[in-house]
Structures are given as structure tokens and as C-alpha cells.
Amino acid sequence: MPALLREGVCLVVSPLIALMKDQVEQLKKRGIIAVAIHAGLSRAEIDLYLNNALYGGVKFLYVSPERLQTDIFLERFKQMKVSLIAIDEAHCISQWGYDFRPPYLKIADLRQWHPAVPLMALTATATPRVSADIVDKLNFQKGYKVFQKSFARENLSFVVRKTDNKERKLIEVLSKVKGSAIVYVRSRKSTELLASLLNRNKIPATYYHAGLSHSGRTKLQDDWIANRSRVIVATNAFGMGIDKADVRVVIHMDLPENLEAYYQEAGRAGRDGQRSYAVIIFQELDAEVLKTKVEQSQPSFEFLQRVYQALCNYFQLAMGSSGGESYDFDLHHFCDRFQLYSHEVFHALRRLEESGLILFNESYYAPSRLHFVVDKAKLYEFQIANEKFDPLIKMLLRLYGGELFADFIRISETYVAEGLKTTAKIVSDQLSHLDKLHVLQYLPQNDQPQLTFLLPRQDTTYLPIDKKVLKERRDLIIGKMEAMRLYATGTHRCRMQYIQDYFGEELSEPCGLCDVCIDKRKKENTNTLHELREEILRVVGEQLLSIDELEQHIAPNDAELFTEVVRELVEEGKILYDEVWRLRLK
User: Fold this and answer.
1) Which residue from 543, 535, 513, 499 is spatially nearest to 157, judged by alpha carbons?
2) What's the rounded Cα separation, in Å, for the pair 191 and 483?
3) Which end of the chain, N or C, is less surrounded by CB atoms within 10 Å?
4) End-to-end CA distance of the chain
5) What 3-state class would DSSP assign to 326?
6) Which runs of E-coded beta strand occur in 16-155?
7) Where are the extended beta strands (E) located within 174-323?
8) How far apart are CA 110 and CA 380, in angstroms?
9) DSSP classification of residue 455
10) Are 146 and 135 contacting, i.e. CB atoms less than 8 angstroms apart?
């Protein structure tokens, strides 16, 4: 809104390609001109988009942080009329944050070119130390202000359920909490297995992970957003940029690595303000598995050298070459070739990323794009001289219009082929031929992970990685993991207060909604508890009711306590759910 009210271009810095592309599309749907510059675009696309930002009325220019220091960007940026510089996911600038990105440290350098332009930094997950670091690293000027909403969510109940059978507990939670749900798991295989289990238990579910094709992910995601599937089982690749307000429950089947990630993912529940739940389902062993996993995620300096050298050999890079270049990257093929374990390499890539050497986008997707490089008169001359290409060019202009001369436009080879009564491959081959003839620039669809060398190839012996910083990061990440373990295993402190304390917020009253608060109420109201148990058993003995129908029948004064008592009676085996999720006596 501030950017729309001011004259000029708003520069938005964001580390997430998927989120940038989603926001650009949302703005375009609203008639607002926006473009995004990120790894994976061709130099020609970047050149065109920056020219449009300089001369073409672009209102929002999204840029990934690694692109900020390139000559092609800086030369245009110096000349732009900039209205606002907005930093999204601003915690990435701090080495004390959970997702440190070294290219963010260069953002403050932009201010020298537009010193009077206001700067805004936004994040949902900053501790006091990270907040102070953001202010320092972005060189905020005297008179700056910090605006912070409370981390407490009045409509969100945080719950931890310890169990020996996580799948059974998941089904129980989903049977009690109606409405849309997200279930987070750690592995891709688990998404498919759990979705299948839920469907067998008459709970409509789909799954999502970065290993699916772009079209596959889009369809599954759209089914869930449109409520054709009630539950989506996903890895943490899912969620950024998802605009769905009516999620009633977010369930974690594995412990997240830190409270920042957990709070962000759990916070996708209840954005419409209605009562919602954030549930962790775990076994005692999970806490030890998390500890081992996080400790193994911190590779040694020597292993980083080995992986970096292997990357250089894999892409056949000469010393000092390839700075800013992006490559398709198959992690499993790379690991097979160099006899490395994929999970160890994955963490090494993240550490190399934190050191500012590379950028690794695990689920990069770019549709086919097209742009005519000749003007309309020259194109007409070409059509007369090259009759065999005339039908294709006419079809492109009919389907996509004159914008093809001004911008790279997404195209579908299948759509074009249907109009020409031919195949998508023939269309693709003809477009490639026209590209070689310099009539147009054709960038075929890409659905491969991308690896970008942010710096030219370095001498592996003298790899610019600070060993002291590497150790500090290790200690920080392990400390965050321990805080997550304490949250999950704690049984005496209000969970909302624990989260507030972690993020340095002055504590409010106990939330009264989390499992810890409800347990305290149960102990304080033993007479009420006994009466409620007896009433539930009596009613269930007389008729079969769903939990919602049972609650309406009994009309308890304390809905949270009622739900907890039902859960206890199910766990004790005194009442059971039947095949259509009605309650009955055992």
C-alpha cells in the first residue's frame, strides 16, 4: 500500500523464488505492473525486465538478494525513481537468525544510491537479538521505528500429543477437528504414505513435495485450496505464498528444527480468526532423532571443501569462471557420481550458501517463455520470405498478442500445437529454429533444481569460509534445536508463553487454550471433570453421535475441557469411534 501511494518503483528484496513469482502473479491479476529478477532467468530476460522497471511503468520490482550487486542491476537501479525499498524475510540478514543468507548483508549498500528513500524490513520470526541485528546491518537511520505485533494468537490452541502410535493419533485429531488441514512430515515418501492412509480411513487427503513436477504440485495444491481435498500432507517445501485463511489445524508429525520454523508453519492455521489448532504428534525417540539430525547437519570445513571441489568438477568450471551463472542440478546424480550421501551433501550445500559461495534452489520451475527480438515490420518481412514458419507466427500473435514484442511471455507449446493441429514437440523444434535465426528468443520449460555460483570459481584450498563463524553457527543452530525439544517435551508451562518468551516478548496471561493450560484446569476442577466424564459416557451409551453432535447435546461450559475429556476416554478405551467417526461405548 505505501508503494502504491508513492510515485516510482518499489524494490522488494526476497530470497524465495516461488514467493516472488506468486506475488508478481497476484499483482498482475490486480492490474499492477510487477516483475521479478532471480537466479534461473536468462541475461536477456533480466535485461528486458530491468529496462521495463526503468522506463516501462513497473510499480514493483522483486529482486533476489544475490542479484543486487551485479553490474546489470546496479547500473539500472542508480537511474530508477525508487519509492520504497522493502526487505522481505528480513531475519535472513542476521547470522543469529535461523535462515541466514550472506547476500542480505549487501542490501545496505543500495542506500548510497538513493539515501532519501525509506526502507522497510519485514519478518514474522525475529528474536530481540535478530531484530537488533536487522537494524544494525540495514543501517537504519536516526528516528527509525520498530512495529511488532504480539506472537500470541488468541484463536490458536497449541497442543503437543505424546503417543506410541502416531498414525492412530493423527486420525483421531483429524476426526475431532473438522475442516481444512495441513500435515507436515519430514520425508517425501512419508507424504504419499500418510495421504494414502488417511484416504483409506475416509479422510480425503492429497500430498505435496518438491520432487513432484510443477504441474503435479499445482494440481494437488489447487485441489486442497478449493477444498476438493480436506488434508494436504506435505514437506516444509509447502506453505510459502499460500493464501488460505480457513485452515483449522496444522499438524507436525516430526519435530521441526527450531521454533522459528515451527511458529511460521503452525501460524498457517486460523488466519480467518476462527478457533484453530497447532498440534505436534511425537514419540519419545523423536527428540533424540532431531538432536542427531541437527548435529549431522553441521558439516566440517574439510567436507565443505570436498563438496565444493566436486561441484566444480561436475560443471567443469575453470578457475575464476562462472560467477553469477546458474546450472540445472540433479542432486542424486551428483552424489552417485562422486560417491557421496545425499543428506550430507544437502546440508553442505546449505552451508556453502550461508558462506555466500552458491545458491541452491531445490524446487525451481520456469515455464516456457518467448519474446520477439525483431519489430513488427521485420517480422512481416520474415514471414513472407519463410512461408513454412508463417502459420506458427500467426498463431503466436493470435494467442498472445503484441506483448510478445515488449516482454518475455509465458507460452504453452501444447496450447499452440492444438491451434495448429500438430504436436508440442514440433512447435518446440520450430521455436528453437526461430531462436537460432534471431527472430525470437525462446526459453523452453525448466523443471530442474538450480544451482547458482554467486562467486567465480574459488581455489578450494583457500575457500573463503570463516571457520570461527562456522562454529558459531553450529552452536546457534544446536541451541535453537534444544529450545524446540524443550517446547515439545515440556508439560508445566503454557505453550503460548513459552513461544512469547523465546521471541523476547513480555508475557501475557496463560493462554487457557493449550494442552498444558487445559491440564491445569482439569486438576483444578476435579468435580466438574468427573461429572463431565459421567455425562459423556451416559449420552454415548444411549445413541451414536459425532463429537460435534455430542458437544451440542451436552452443551459444556468449557469446550476445550470437553474435547480433552473425550480424548482421554478414547485413549482409555472407554469409548470408540466407529467407521463413520461416531462415538460409541466399547
Assistant:
1) 513
2) 26
3) N
4) 58
5) strand
6) 34-37, 60-63, 82-87, 119-121
7) 180-184, 205-208, 231-234, 247-252, 276-282
8) 44
9) S
10) yes
As a 3-state breakdown, the chain gives helix, strand, coil percent values, each rounded to 5, of 50, 15, 35
One-letter-per-residue 3-state SS of 4-21: HHCCCEEEEECCCHHHHH
Per-residue pLDDT tens listing for the chain (586 residues):
999 999 999 999 998 887 888 889 889 999 999 999 987 788 888 899 999 999 878 999 999 988 888 888 999 999 999 999 999 999 999 988 888 888 899 899 999 999 999 999 999 888 899 999 999 999 998 889 999 889 999 999 999 999 999 999 999 999 888 899 999 999 888 999 999 999 999 999 999 987 787 788 888 988 999 999 999 999 987 877 677 899 999 999 999 999 999 999 999 999 999 999 999 999 989 999 999 989 888 999 999 999 999 999 999 999 999 888 889 898 889 999 999 998 899 999 999 988 889 988 876 677 899 999 999 999 999 999 999 999 999 999 999 998 899 888 989 998 999 999 999 999 999 999 999 999 999 999 877 788 999 899 999 999 999 899 889 889 999 999 999 999 999 999 999 999 999 999 888 789 999 999 998 888 887 777 888 889 999 998 888 888 888 888 888 888 888 888 888 888 888 898 887 778 888 8
Q: How much is the pTM?
A: 0.77
**The dihedral formed by the CA atoms of 217, 223, 224 and 226, expressed in degrees to the nearest 10:** 140
Instruction: Give Cβ neighbours of residue 368 (< 8 Å, ≥ 6 apart).
Output: 410, 411, 412, 413, 428, 442, 443, 444, 445
Q: Is 525-585 a CATH 3.30.1120 domain?
A: no
Alpha-helical (H) ranges within 235-341 are 259-266, 284-296, 301-314, 331-338
Give the CB-side neighbour count of residue 256, counting CA atoms within 13 A: 26
Beta bridge partners of 249: 181, 277
> Are the beta carbons of 516 and 157 closer than 8 angstroms?
no
CATH number for domain 156-282, candidates 3.20.20.450, 2.40.30.10, 3.40.50.300, 3.40.190.10: 3.40.50.300
Query: Which region holds residue 79: left if phi is over 0, alpha if psi is between -120 and 50, else beta?
Result: alpha
Q: What is the rounded CA–CA span in Å between residue 191 and residue 124?
A: 26
The amino acid that residue 204 corresponds to is P
What's the CATH fold of domain 2-137?
A: Rossmann fold (3.40.50)
Q: What is the CA radius of gyration of the chain?
A: 27
In the CATH hierarchy, which fold is given to the domain comprising 293-365+448-479? Arc Repressor Mutant, subunit A (1.10.10)
Q: Is 577 left (phi over 0), alpha (psi -120 to 50) or beta?
A: beta
Encode 309-344: b = buried (16+ Cβ within 10 Å), e = exposed. Answer: bbbbebbebeeeebebbbeebebeebbeeeebeeee
3-state secondary structure 390-412: HHHHHHHHHHHHHHHHCCCEECC
Pull the grid cell for residue 399.
494467442
Sequential DSSP letters for 524-553 = HTHHHHHHHHHHHHHHHHHS-B-HHHHHHH
**Grid cell listed for 270:** 486460523
Q: Is 21 exposed, middle or buried (0-12, 13-18, 19+ CB in 10 A)?
A: middle
Residue that the C-alpha cell 469446550 belongs to? 559
